[in-house]
Design brief:
alpha+beta, Glutaredoxin, 4-stranded mixed sheet, 3-stranded antiparallel sheet, 7 strands, binds glutathione
Length: 320
């Protein structure tokens, strides 16, 4: 990957993290503050105060865009979209189709945002990033926590009262997000980034065991935690959306495609067709982002033409 890492505020180009057995292990993110409805955390939920930095190719970033859309937070929380092709300085802003330049910090590269928050920052320069315009710093760069804040803290600001973390299901939702994280959401990266046969086979086996398991859960209920859409579905959806177009070929996650799983494939289309979600999906950025940016996996940077998929085809999930 033409990617790099910050070390004490200096950009170093190097390979993505792997341990000595060839396994990929994502680094923990470092900005972990919380926005709260009452402001007790120092970051009060307010319209116009926060800004979101995303990449449309990135599944983690898409989670936050989906919550922003489903909750009706578009006017309250601004957004900038980086170029899907990573530059030799990491994520960059451009004027390419589907991008939105940085109207808040007027940065050229995402690394500038991290350095504004901490001039001595060491770590990866990732999206999504939630920026506080008032304090001039990063609130949080962990998608799972950002979606929770959007879902539960923007009371009276969010235009929709859709609740994706309902009280009665909270434990189940957290458990489900945990269960799909390493095995599926990171599992596809663990397969694709593995540098030994053993690490790859372990990851791909665990990935498909888990897809099989959720295929069976989805044969008796509409969504992962029952018959209502929750944050857990958003977390799985972003991986399923990219699966057949990117992870199947590029990351060698090729025991089966999502279209081969009747329940997962219908479930994927059900969520895609849920009002507000389709607008956050950009298959062009997704395909070019992965295939062009990850040159250690795809050195000639050729972007596959297919597969032909129709996410708008009628689904059968209203049977529940
Ligand atoms: N744990 C983070 C992961 C974010 C992440 O890894 N984003 C990727 C894009 S898909 C990224 O920005 N990678 C750049 C890099 O690692 O250099 C989250 O869920 O928000």
């Amino acid at each position: 990957m033409t990617s790099g890492t910050m070390v004490d505020g200096k950009w170093k180009t190097e390979l993505i993290e792997r341990d000595e057995s060839g396994k990929f292990n994502p680094m923990a993110t470092q900005f972990r503050d919380r926005i709260t409805a009452d402001g007790s955390s120092g970051f009060k939920a307010e319209a116009g105060r926060y800004h979101l930095y995303v990449c449309l190719a990135c599944p983690w970033a898409q989670r936050t865009l989906i919550l922003r859309s489903l909750k009706g937070l578009e006017e309250a929380i601004g957004v900038s979209i980086v170029d899907p092709i990573m530059s030799d300085q990491g994520w960059a802003f451009s004027h390419a189709l589907g991008t939105i330049p940085d109207s808040v910090n007027h940065a050229q590269y995402m690394q500038e945002i991290y350095l504004k928050a901490n001039p001595k920052y060491s770590g990866r320069i990732t999206v999504p990033v939630l920026w506080d315009k008032q304090k001039g710093t990063i609130v949080n760069n962990e998608s799972r926590e950002i979606i929770r804040m959007f879902d539960t803290e923007f009371i009276g600001i969010a235009k929709s009262n859709l609740d994706l973390y309902p009280l009665a299901l909270r434990a189940k939702i957290d458990e489900t997000i945990d269960a799909i994280y390493m095995s599926i959401n990171v599992g596809v990266y663990r397969s694709g980034f593995a540098t030994t046969q053993k690490a790859y086979e372990e990851a791909v086996t665990e990935l498909f065991e888990n897809l099989d398991r959720w295929e069976s859960v989805l044969s008796v209920q509409r969504y992962l935690c029952g018959n209502q859409l929750t944050e857990a579905d958003v977390c799985l959806f972003v991986t399923l959306l990219r699966f057949d177009s990117v992870y199947y070929g590029h990351f060698k996650c090729n025991l089966r495609r999502i279209v081969d799983y009747p329940n997962l494939w219908n479930y994927l289309r059900d969520i895609y067709q849920y009002p507000g979600i389709q607008e956050t999906c950009n298959l062009d950025h997704i395909k070019r982002g992965y295939h062009i940016s990850m040159t250690q996996i795809n050195p000639n940077r050729i972007v596959p033409k297919g597969p032909i998929l129709n996410f708008e085809e009628r689904h059968d999930r209203d049977r529940f």
